[in-house]
Amino acid sequence: MTKSATQRAKESEYKDNIYVDRAKHFCRLCKEVLDHKKKSTLDNHFKSKKHKKNVQNSNNNLQRTLTVTIQQFMSDKDQINCDL
Fold it and tell me: Where are the transmembrane segments (predicted)?
């Protein structure tokens, strides 16, 4: 028995990468509709150059955000120490 596409989307392997909207399955990073009828189609999408590039860009954006946040925190901390 094969699993339904919605069940597949909820599995740990896919849950961070796919969201379901009106019975359509979307890749969170690529923002495109995925043919979800076969697991191999989903696997091929997640192995594609386009998806891997979007993963890398997402990771870079997260890293930049964390760096800026840490810098702001350190600056605020220094200001508080000077005020004391």
Answer: none
